[in-house]
Design goal:
By secondary structure, the chain is mainly alpha-helical. It is about 65% helix and about 5% strand. It is elongated and about 70 Å long.
């Protein structure tokens, strides 16, 4: 943890690139924690903590550079780790409860539960998807996938974002709202690979859909024609 704190300061001080230094400096923290075995997945990001305490963050960095005040920086950094981790647990619990509740509802569909459940599992991994993105991951035809999505829409689990007849994009709305609209927006874990996917969301600044597009890692952004409308929806 201390190595990650030191490395972040050093990287921010060197500032080696014309653009993206802040994001890379924050990602470096998670990378080091994974390499050192502190994290199994890159699921702890301090971006929001640094943004909420922006003045103190820059003051601490400046004090290290000008006065060698490492202790103050370490205290600030470790407080951020503790706060972010605590928030992460709370959001993980909310997401897991949501997934369990929706899976229980799907289980009551009878014969349709199998196909609908397979599509739902993919949406739990990546909360914004289209039929084309689902097909490689489920052994189902496109009409069967569309039927399953229609059932999820009727249940209020997914919403369609584009309003178009073709190239439609669907969002697992309640899941995304927990990630985006939670006051602290902590990282969450909920199923295979979801920890990594949702961790990327934390790297987004409040209301910054451009950063969301760059870093969320969800498949909403593969279709440029949907970007502006999807941003408005989000």
């Amino acid at each position: 943890m201390i190595n990650a704190a030191f490395a972040h300061v050093q990287f921010e001080t060197i500032h080696p690139f014309k653009d993206g230094n802040g994001r890379l400096g924050r990602l470096l923290i998670a990378l080091i924690l994974c390499v050192e075995g502190v994290l199994r997945e890159p699921s702890l990001y301090l971006s929001l903590y640094f943004k909420q305490h922006r003045a103190q963050y820059y003051e601490r960095l400046h004090a290290v550079r000008t006065q060698g005040e490492w202790e103050g920086w370490l205290g600030f950094f470790l407080d951020g780790v503790a706060e972010t981790a605590t928030q992460a647990v709370a959001t993980a619990q909310r997401l897991l409860a949501l997934l369990a509740a929706d899976r229980a509802r799907i289980g009551g569909l009878g014969a349709r539960a199998g196909s609908v459940g397979l599509v739902f599992d993919q949406l739990a991994r990546r909360v914004v998807l289209g039929v084309a993105q689902l097909r490689p991951h489920v052994a189902m035809s496109a009409p069967t996938i569309r039927s399953a999505i229609s059932t999820l829409a009727e249940m209020g689990i997914v919403n369609e974002l584009t309003g178009q007849r073709r190239h439609r994009v669907y969002v697992y709305q309640a899941y995304l709202e927990i990630l985006i609209h939670h006051p602290k927006r902590p990282v969450a874990v909920g199923g295979p690979n979801v920890g990594i996917h949702t961790a990327r969301l934390l790297e987004v600044g409040d209301g910054d859909s451009a950063e969301f597009e760059k870093q969320a890692g969800v498949s909403l952004w593969w279709c440029p024609r949907n970007r502006q409308q999807a941003r408005r929806q989000l």
